[in-house]
Fold this protein.
Amino acid sequence: MDFKSEITRLKRVVHFLNRTSTTIINNLVTTLSALTDVDIYEPTTGEVLIYNEVTQKWENGPQSGGGGTPGGSTTQVQFNDGGSFGGDAGMTYNKTTDVLTIVGVTLSGKTASKIVATDSSKNLDTPYTFRDEDNMSSNDATGIPSQQSVKAFVENTSGTGNWTDYSSGSTITGWSSYTTKIIRYKQQGKLVHIHFNIAGTSNSATTDFTLPIATGTNGSSLNLCYGVNNGTANIAYPSWAASSSTVGFARYTSATAVTSSWTASGTKQVTGQFIYEID
């Protein structure tokens, strides 16, 4: 073996390796920003690299989810405040009493059948059912009606000032034929107003007609009535029993003298107005 030649060859190999390794080391990337798929701009403490599918690069930004420093003070509920944790005195949670306190709540674009109210301590109370019923048929002890329902119910049950004709609906006793038959009524709250004028040929000693709404239990009334019995003017006094659907008329010949019956022949007339209370 030619040792001299072998040593010369080995020296050349070592020289090549030294020169190549220097080139490799000089070309090594020593910072992240030097990588072609990394875009770092003004990095700050705590930021991480996040891959952006649009630019197809890794970009620096704040860490999201599972970490970070809470905002605000103790008991304040956390929320996203411009990309960071935030807290405010207007929304707190007390873990000892299990009470969540929110200063203001705004509902937008919601349709609900329940209304949430607060009790005397300003705590959320049991939701109340919203009712839109003109006749209040559900009779819900805790239901809250709409303004339109209240207006419709009051007008329908209390009357609007218009009289309703009840001439054909009432059953009248005491006449065989009529020259005039008018019975009208209107209801205002628990009061029923009756206006009537019935005249014709008598065929009975009794005089009465049925009412559109039964009377109440107390039987109180206010009346102004006039009667004619076979051509003689009398006072016609209306009376009825409690919870009755019929009003009868007693014939008074004077303010104190009462005749219990009418003449069952000739002409007969009762006319006037009276008011009674219902339950």
Notes: Residues 164-277 form a domain with the Adenovirus Type 5 Fiber Protein (Receptor Binding Domain) fold (CATH 2.60.90). Helices lie at 3-27, 147-158. The chain has a mean pLDDT of 81.
